Amino acid sequence: IKIHFVDHGGTERSVEVEDGISLMEAATQNLIPGIDGDCGGSCACATCHMHIDPEWLDRLPPIEDQENQMLDIVDLRDADSRLGCQVKVSPELDGIVVRTPIGQH
Ligand code: FES
């Protein structure tokens, strides 16, 4: 499954990952700058904050309460913000475009 990570400078990194991992794991496994995943995916650190391309946003599962609370501590929360650890990669998301936030390096 292909994922396109675009940083805030516009540099695109495309990675190929297996079905069922999270967008955070897809980023950290491929050393995408800006995505740390400090808490290991337990929705407790918000260092996996990402912006989802509008074309793909509606295809994701809705934001759960805990994710919503963690997103509230993110500086640059936007309507397209998600925590990468809470979004699982699936074949329906093949080709998804994700932007890594400015300020996360
Ligand atoms: Fe910590 Fe997602 S990895 S909140």
TrEMBL record:
Pfam families: Fer2. Its cofactor is [2Fe-2S] cluster. The keyword Iron applies. Residues 1-104 form the 2Fe-2S ferredoxin-type domain. Keywords: 2Fe-2S, Iron, Iron-sulfur, Metal-binding. It comes from the Bacteria. Belongs to the adrenodoxin/putidaredoxin family. PANTHER family: FERREDOXIN-2, MITOCHONDRIAL, FERREDOXIN/ADRENODOXIN. This is 2Fe-2S iron-sulfur cluster-binding protein. The lineage of its organism: Bacteria, Pseudomonadati, Pseudomonadota, Gammaproteobacteria, Nevskiales.
